[in-house]
Amino acid sequence: MVKQGINILGIGKALPTKVVLSTDIDKRNHLSLGVTEKVTGLAKRCFLAEE
Questions:
Q1: 39 in helix, strand or coil?
Q2: Are the C-beta atoms of residues 48 and 16 closer than 8 Å to each other?
Q3: Which terminus of the chain faces fewer neighbouring Cβ atoms within 10 Å, N or C?
Q4: Tens of pLDDT along 7-16?
């Protein structure tokens, strides 16, 4: 049995700067409320700012 190791190069954390709700996407695309969440399974999406 060959064991392979892993190396951790770094750790960090980031908090989302923008949250977009699925209902906002529905409104923007003229869809019935709840369609995007039903199709994707996601109620919101979180985005980080560009560095």
A1: helix
A2: yes
A3: N
A4: 888 888 888 8
